[in-house]
Structures are given as C-alpha cells and as structure tokens.
Request: fold
Amino acid sequence: MFRTILPLLLVAGSPALALAQDTPATPAGREALDVLIGSIPFRTVVGGNEVPKLSAYLADRLAQAGFDHSDMSFVPLENTGYFTARYRGRDPKARPLVLLVHLDVVDAKREDWKRDPFVPVIENGYVYGRGALDDKSAVAILVTTLAKLKRAGWMPARDIILLGSGDEESAMETTALAAEQLKDAYLVLNADAGFGARDENGKPLYFSLQAAEKTYADYTLTTTDPGGHSSQPRASNAIVRMGRAAERVLAHRFPVRQDEVTKAYFAAAAKTKTGPLGTAMAAFARDAKDAAAIEALTNDPEMIGKIRTTCVPTRIEGGHAYNALPQKVKANINCRIFPGEEPSMVRAALIDAIDDPGITLTPRLEMSPAAGSPLRPDVLAAVTKAIHLNAPGVPIIPAMETGTTDSSRFRARGIPAFGVMGVFLKQSEFHAHGLDERLPIAALDEGVRYWESLIRDLAGK
Reply:
C-alpha cells in the first residue's frame, strides 16, 4: 500500500538531491520511516477496530529487535484497547518509566484529500498520510529508538514501558485503564504533547515542554416550552431563551489563575514576543493581579485560556418544524478547566451566570481534574540536553496545554507527566487533524537522536 512519488521538478535539476530529501540520513531514521509507512495504512479511527492490528504489527517489529513476546501485551476495550511493551531494566523493584503515545487517529475522508489519507506517500521531503504527524510518527520514532537500544545490548536501570493508547482522540478510556494498571510509574513522557517551533525559514525558535493541561468538560443546557403555531408567537421562545443563556456563558469571566507552570511559561515566552503582547506576558509573570496585563491577555484568543478557565457554546439543536414554535432546545457548553480547579465549581459558576431557572445544566462529559506536574530538575536537564542535540541553544519553555491529552489521566493519579514530543515544525507544517497531514522526513533522524538521549538519561541512571 506504499508508494513513493518523486516531484516532477527536481531540486536544482539534480535527481540525487531530490531523492536525498526523501530519505533519512541515518539507518535509525530510515528504520523509523519504514515503521511509519507500515503504520499509516491501519485505519485506527474510532469504531474501526484497527488498533489491535496496529498493535500486532508493532509487536512484530519489536520482536525482530529482540523483545520477548511475553513482555508485550494488548488489553482490549470494546473495539479498541491499549498496547504495552516492557523493556526490562536492572532493578525489577524500581518504578518504571512510561513512554506514552496513542495509536488512534482522527478520521479522514478520501474525497477531501489530494491523496488517499491511509496510503502513505513520500513527496518533496515529507511523509503524507493520516497520523503522519499525530501520532504515528511518535510511535515509529519510539519503536525504532527502543529497538536500537535493545540491539545495542543497553540495559536501563529501571523498566521502560512503551504504552500505546487506543482512544486518545475520543474518550481516553483506554488511557484511564492503563493508568490504573501502571499507577506505580515514577514518570510519564508523553510523545503526543510538547513541540518545537521553527520560523518559516526553518530556524528553531523554542521548545515548549508540556507540564500541565486543562480539564475537559461538556455540559448540556436544556430548556422546554409548550410550543404552538408559529403564526401565534408569544413573549417566551425556547430558542431565544437559549440564545440569551449562550451569550451569558460567553460573557462570563472565570477567575484569573497562575501556577508554577504558567508563571514559568509567561516569564520565558514573553522573551519570544514583541510589542504589547510580550509586555503583557512579562507583566503577568511578575504580578498575576496586573489589571492591564490581564485585560491584554484576555483579549488574545491564544492567551485567554492560559490564565483562566474558559467555557463556550459549541453546538445547539432545537425546534421540530419550520412552522411551529420550538418545544425543546439544547446547547452544548465546552469547558477547558484550569489545572486543579474542581468541575463542580465551574458548573455552579455557569448556573449563576445563566441565571435562568428555566434552563437545566447536566454534565455530558467531565474528566477528572489534575494539577500540573512539578518542574523537576532532572526532567528539565534531560530535555534541555536532548533538545540541544538538534537545536543548540534554543530556550525550553514550560507550558500548560489548553487542550487535553493522555497525560491528564496520569496526572489525575498524581503521577508526574510531561509532554516532550521533540519534533520541530514550522507553523505551515502543522496539519494534525487536517487535510494532507504530513511530517518532515528530517524529523525522523532528529527524533531518534533526541529520544535516545532522553531515555538514557531518565531510565539509565
């Protein structure tokens, strides 16, 4: 199912140069490419029942490198599940290091893409395909790195467990199940979070280390009305009522928050910004009560979620006929809750903000709250060393993710987890969840080099 497409216009007129950009420079990079192109054809979307098949493929790849099949397992959960592979260390009593990836992908339709999303294509220095970036590239890099270490005869001080979850893009139930089984882990390194930024000329700018993330929640608002004929309108109308409630939700401002992670983020990230925004970020790092800084950050869509809980209407449904007054209207409110803040307090704040007893609020999905991970010196040192192998001197910026990843399931259990993907991308290269998702081939060589350093430092001593 794999095909390579060479560009019609060869770089600088040289076929050799055109081929070189489509081939990793190192044997490990080429192996990672091979694992990646073997992984993309598995359509591991929700309900697709392909996660078990991809897990079997990965187990075979690791077995070829010397892993024992008895140290690998797949735990099913409905039509998905999670995969683990244990790299045994010198001390079986030491708490294990978990390397976290996810095997599932967001669905993609063939008619929307220029290429078949589940047929890997190499073109112009990129691998194209669903999951090429999110998250099968990380899967391929970690499988290759562990295989390289195993073949070299390296033995870590503690066990290393590669964990591939099966529903990160939906309910994260496999991750919750795995986190319960791996509750003795001493540290989790998540390869699906944290990222390196490049400018459009390819220069590395900074690396964002995910040390916290917001809690995900969806709430359903419901209102009912007797309805009636549309030719006889009344002062009350369920759609209008829900519209007012949605406006109040959007207008509500939750309390401003700052913790160790966000304070470090604003202090470091302010140095990468110019103008009023950079000034506001620096001011907020110094004083979380600075009113001018708070106003500036609140008015920036990228920043508002970094200083407070946010809730927004995302869906609405109602009415039953074009010529009838609506009898029932529902709306979904999506909340991203600041780390450590209780969802029950958010629910209460929403009810107060809506201020309408005729509208009920019920939780649809409410994940467990989790505080950020302490900024451990050993993790910061290991990440800095590994990042600087590929991008010397770039700043390492601790950050809170405004979205939600598998890390949250471990942090909710008090297990330190850090998003440390390690791949550097230009903004124009980020197509995760979108059309024509792709990964720069050069990221594979860099990824193996980075992860080998990180694993040796955090599991080898």
